[in-house]
Amino acid sequence: MAEKRFRREVHTAGCSCPVVLLVPSSQEFTMADVAFVVTTLAVFALVAVIAKGVAKL
């Protein structure tokens, strides 16, 4: 399953020994962006509800 989500890249890093890096796919970055936006909107909605409740006190 990790093979589908990550792209393998081999770098020499300035020496003769290869270094294998697992680079996340662009789809994984897109899902992280969507999750960030949804979470941010939820936090602002929660703050608005709390502020509305405090204003009624």
Separation of termini?
A: 53 Å
What's the number of helices?
2
Work out the radius of gyration.
21 Å
Largest sheet: 2 strands, antiparallel
Global outline: rod-shaped
Mean pLDDT: 78
Low-confidence stretches: none
Element layout with pairings:
Layout: H1 2-5, E1 6-11, E2 19-24, H2 26-55
Antiparallel strand pairs: 1-2
Transmembrane segments: 34-55
Keywords: Membrane, Transmembrane, Transmembrane helix
Tell me what the structure shows.
- There is one protein chain.
- This protein is α+β, with helices and mostly antiparallel strands.
- The chain has one domain (2-55).
- 60% of the residues lie in helices and 21% in strands.
- The chain has helices at 2-5, 26-55, and strands at 6-11, 19-24.
- It has a two-stranded antiparallel ribbon with strand order 1-2.
- The mean pLDDT is 78.
Q: Which properties best describe this structure?
A:
60% helix; 57 residues; 2 helices; 2 strands
Write a brief structural summary:
The chain is of the alpha+beta class. It has one domain. It is built from 2 helices and 2 strands, in the order αββα.
